[in-house]
Amino acid sequence: DTGVSQNPRHKITKRGQNVTFRCDPISEHNRLYWYRQTLGQGPEFLTYFQNEAQLEKSRLLSDRFSAERPKGSFSTLEIQRTEQGDSAMYLCASSAQGARNTEAFFGQGTRLTVV
Amino acid sequence: QKEVEQNSGPLSVPEGAIASLNCTYSDRGSQSFFWYRQYSGKSPELIMFIYSNGDKEDGRFTAQLNKASQYVSLLIRDSQPSDSATYLCAAPQGGASGGSYIPTFGRGTSLIVHP
Prior knowledge:
Strand content of chain B: over 45%
Order of helices and strands of chain A: EEEEEEEEEEE
Oligomer: heterodimer
Strand content of chain A: over 45%
Structural class of chain A: mainly beta
Number of helices of chain A: 0
Largest interface: A-B, 26 and 30 residues
């Protein structure tokens, strides 16, 4: 399967714990995006990488959130000291280098539940 | 704040009818537009994209773009119950740091096709 892969698919954690999610983009894609989606809403942008460089970060993103993309391949999203409001679907998408017209493809998502 | 706006619905149509889904955007710099379909509990799946003013047809789907009015729509002909899903409109919009174009999503329109 050469699509975007996310792990884990589901995560239940206690409030205050740290969690880390992984995204493996489509191999030839150099752009990678993280989004968060809650019920009834569209995907909300969190952060963007071009290769290993983190070029954009949402102003809404708490300092408890951090993302990395070492070597420009897979990416990780870490949430420290989780809160119940962090419960959501975390989506990763990737797209190819080129003009701004390139389409983004999504992984299956990681559903986080903070109890 | 650059935005993509959609009516959340639900839009209910009978089987066999034409479903019309609408989207407006605020960033006049957007040059490409994407429609994603999202089934409940699943991640968004790209179904159509359009770059030029006018219509683009793909099977039962037609995307329509009017850049002057900053309006994009998706028509689904001969709607089937399997088309019941949330349809997300997306446009790359300029990031805060400049130079990056981030796929920005509307909240999605829920479509219900009833037999």
